[in-house]
Amino acid sequence: ENEISRPKGYTVSWHHNPAVENHHFGQTHPMKPWRLTLTKSLVLSYGMHTAMDTYISRPASRDEIAEFHKDEYVEFLNVVTPQNIYEMYPELATGPQGYTSSIFGVGEDCPIFDGLYDFCSNYAGASIDAARKLVNHQSDIAINWSGGLHHAKKAEASGFCYVNDIVLAILQLLRYHPRVLYIDIDVHHGDGVEQAFWSTDRVMCVSFHKYDKEVFFPGTGPLDSTGPLHPDNPGKNYTINVPLNDGIDDEGYAYLFQNVIEPTIKVYRPTAIVLQCGADSLGHDRLGCFNLNIRGHGNCVSFVKSFHIPMLVVGGGGYTPRNVARAWAHETSILIGADKTLNPALPEHMPYREAFRREGLTLFPNLSGWRKENMNTRADIERIIRHVREQLSYIRG
Ligand code: ZL4
Ligand code: CA
Ligand code: ZN
């Protein structure tokens, strides 16, 4: 394949650690860290690493994780194993097919598997390293595809997330940056990040997600959830939620995304942006219910990049591994400015090429299919945009 040249005028850094890729949540668990191996295979086979500074990140230390998480919880993650969990917590050994959730959120969504702490400390370390490169001005766009685990709480695992690497990275950015904009295009609501920064105006959280209270996880993030209600709370109006129905397509999503993000950036004037690129908002995702194509998902990344604000890009959900890999490889190419030069036909010689055969050996298979009808009307979308514009009018200062 052709060598790809470094982007002109800015630096992209890619932070990863193979230690994250080989962990197993369990046989049929949807989260497959192996999707990171597939992503890396595409990034390297296209030669995109030659256009970035690449770093093998170190694991986050106990103290670094404890900057957000409760000490007892970090200690728990550090010592618990599949072997000792029932000795430590006999009360967990109740359910017929294993433990039921109660202690620190562990359960079927967040199982205790071999090497759990190694997994968590490594994906978190990569996001922290990436944030520090931005703070030091050694990088303008820093990428960690293993991060983006937006549901983890201070002392609770939730929705496949144990350590909230996004919160830890934003805490690093806040040492230097006065205002950080967090944008979350995972199909699930970014509740953990929202909760962590609910009462501050130094972080503006914007999540786009499927919303169906009681039915779709985590059930939070309606349009009118915009921060604390108390008039004196600085966080009031510094949370934007964009609740969506099944089946949104590339066109509707792009229109909505641009009409929410552009005025938000104009009004809030962030000095750094964190973009969570959960790929479960693609069509054909095992857990998701949207109809986005790889290009539609990538358009969000291009749009955010076009503001030329230092940016941390993390992964997140994504449960059809070959499409996760396609999306994140394409988005890597956007970030290094090589999206127009990549051959959409997958490289002839690459590891795991067979894994991509199902939808065809291309970066851009048709994922918009007919699996989910688009239940978002033009009126729904216009109503959201009007609501966001009104909300922004209150923070104009
Ligand atoms: C599974 O097959 O909606 C977990 C989870 C484990 C293996 C064997 C156990 C079978 C689907 C999901 C029974 C599991 C039942 N295994 C799990 C309310 C729920 C209670 C738990 O992308 N059951 C909870 C979490 C969501 C719920 C989504 C998205 C993360 C992110 C960022 C997290 N939890 C119902 C489910 C399986 C499983 C099959 C599953 N869990 C699908 N959706 C959920 O935003 C990374
Ligand atoms: Ca989201
Ligand atoms: Zn998700």
Walk me through the structure.
The protein has 397 residues and is α/β, with parallel strands linked by helices. It has a single domain (12-393), classed as Histone deacetylase domain (Arginase, Chain A, 3-Layer(aba) Sandwich), CATH 3.40.800.20. The protein contains 11 helices and 8 strands. The chain has helices at 35-45, 62-65, 71-79, 85-88, 116-135, 165-173, 191-196, 250-268, 294-305, 321-335, 378-393; strands spanning 12-16, 53-56, 141-144, 180-184, 203-210, 239-244, 272-276, 311-314. An 8-stranded parallel β-sheet has the order 2-1-3-8-7-4-5-6, with helices on both faces. Helix 8 (250-268) packs parallel to helix 9 (294-305). It is globular and about 55 Å long. The protein starts with 11 loop residues before the first strand and ends with a helix. The structure holds ligand ZL4, calcium ion and zinc ion. Calcium ion is lined by residues 184-186, 188-190, 207-209.
